[in-house]
Amino acid sequence: AQSVAQPEDQVNVAEGNPLTVKCTYSVSGNPYLFWYVQYPNRGLQFLLKYITGDNLVKGSYGFEAEFNKSQTSFHLKKPSALVSDSALYFCAVRGSTLGRLYFGRGTQLTVWP
Amino acid sequence: NAGVTQTPKFQVLKTGQSMTLQCAQDMNHNSMYWYRQDPGMGLRLIYYSASEGTTDKGEVPNGYNVSRLNKREFSLRLESAAPSQTSVYFCASTDRYLSNQPQHFGDGTRLSIL
After folding, report:
1. CB contact under 8 A, A46 and B104
2. From CA B63, how far away is CA B102, in angstroms rounded?
3. CA distance A81 to chain B (A)
4. Nearest residue to A107 via CA among A94, A90, A82
5. B72 C-beta neighbours (distance < 10 Å), count
6. A2-55 per-position pLDDT tens digit
7. Fewer CB within 10 Å, N or C, chain B?
8. A104 at B interface, C-beta within 8 A
9. Contact residues, chain A, for B94 at CB < 8 Å
């Protein structure tokens, strides 16, 4: 069975500091992992994905994610946070059944000035 | 480039009323999905359509029906709305099932059932 866990409901960080949003997953077979961001009253926007290859994946807006197979983790990172990064972040894994995504519960990121 | 368009954006219904949420994509995608988003629960799949002419239940299909009208359009119907269906509904699409490409999401329909 596929599942995703985001252990932190909220992450708070000061502008300019590095940020990490955590994600662990459970999947049968090869993992296909995604990060999405949601701003208020908007849909989910794709940030980055891991399919295969390098464990460090670079995405939009300066975000990157580190895939760790042994720890079954896919943490989202950014070296220097911006106030405009404040949003709700979702990690997702693609299941083997018809491409559906399994989402974590989301992590609210707040970056204060 | 509109992407995925959902209508209406907001709706308030009374218990027992019916309505249809509309979704259309202009990316020539084969697969389309309906999710609901509730606080603290992430997104849960209601129904999906792997390709035109096919639909399948997701993890929370009770109280809903869908229609894949054509390749572009995938509608979600509430036959007899219940307060438990108060939620934000998102439609998504991707080029094909088992794709490595991300799903594209609409901006959602915010539905309140009184």
Report:
1. yes
2. 28
3. 24
4. A90
5. 17
6. 899 999 999 999 999 999 999 999 988 888 999 999 998 889 999 999 988 889
7. N
8. yes
9. 99
Contact between B91 and B4 under an 8 Å Cβ cutoff? The reply is yes
Q: Which residues of B touch A101 (CB under 8 A)?
A: 33, 43, 45, 103
> CA torsion sign, B11 to B17 to B20 to B21?
positive
Q: For residue A95, is pLDDT > 80?
A: no
> B72-112, pLDDT tens digit by residue?
999 999 999 999 999 999 999 998 877 788 899 999 999 99
Buried b (16+ CB within 10 A) or exposed e, B45-70: bbbbbbeeeebeebebbeebebebee
- C-alpha A61/C-alpha A58 separation (Å) is 9
- The predicted pLDDT at position A98 comes to 63
Which residue does chain B place closest to A31, by CA atoms? Answer: B100
pLDDT greater than 80 at residue B46 = yes
User: Using an 8 Å Cβ cutoff, are B23 and B32 in contact?
Assistant: yes
Query: Residue B58 in contact with residue B48, Cβ under 8 Å?
Result: yes
Write down the residue that tokens 């009184």 correspond to.
B114
What's the rounded Cα separation, in Å, for the pair B75 and B54? 13
Tokens of A87: 């949003």
The rounded distance, in Å, linking the Cα atoms of B102 and A45 is 9
Residue of A nearest to B50 (CA): A98
